[in-house]
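In this section we walk through a basic example: taking a raw amino acid sequence and producing a predicted 3D structure, encoded as discrete structure tokens. The instruction is simple. Fold the sequence below.
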Amino acid sequence: MQHEAHAHHQHSDHIAHGGHEAHAGHGGHDGHTIAHGGHEAHAGHGGHDGHTPGKASWAMAAKATLHCLTGCAIGEVLGMVIGTSLGWGNAPTMVLAIVLAFFFGYSLTFWAVVRAGLTLKAAVGVALAADTLSITVMEVVDNGVLLLVPGAMDAHLTDALFWGALAFAFLVAFVITTPVNKWMIGRGKGHAVVHQYHH
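The resulting token sequence is shown next.
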């Protein structure tokens, strides 16, 4: 009986000891999980702090404006070349130039996001959202400057005045449109909707 009691006592101690080990192991696991979870939460929080929506640099705005200016310049020059070649007056030539400026301005953004994987319908929406205000401001300023430069609208494609006035108009348009783009990108609009597709 004493031998059995002694064996039973050892067995109880072993169970108790095993239970203690299991409890310790479980506690360690919980601690690790909590610590690990805390680390993940902290890392995620840090990532959130690092993300600064509404922040738009001048360089980003200038790049967006230059992108817009490229399309506008192609469209305007082409429109003026066509209008002049057909012997059109200033008004219809300017209208054609503006229409083509919008077309090429939208096209550059459209094809860029299509290459990034967007559907044609989605790409049209992105291009309209990204470029409409930017191109509008640029065209108003650009053509306004051309109208104010004496003789610019009557100059021929072979005249230095034509190209000089056009270059000056584009420069003024760039300077005025860049702050507009910066403001829009800062609000998550304009070219900000294009940036998410540029990886």
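Looking at the output, two observations stand out. The chain has two domains: 1-51, 58-195. Confidence is low (pLDDT under 50) at residues 1-12, 14-53. In the next section we compare this with other chains.
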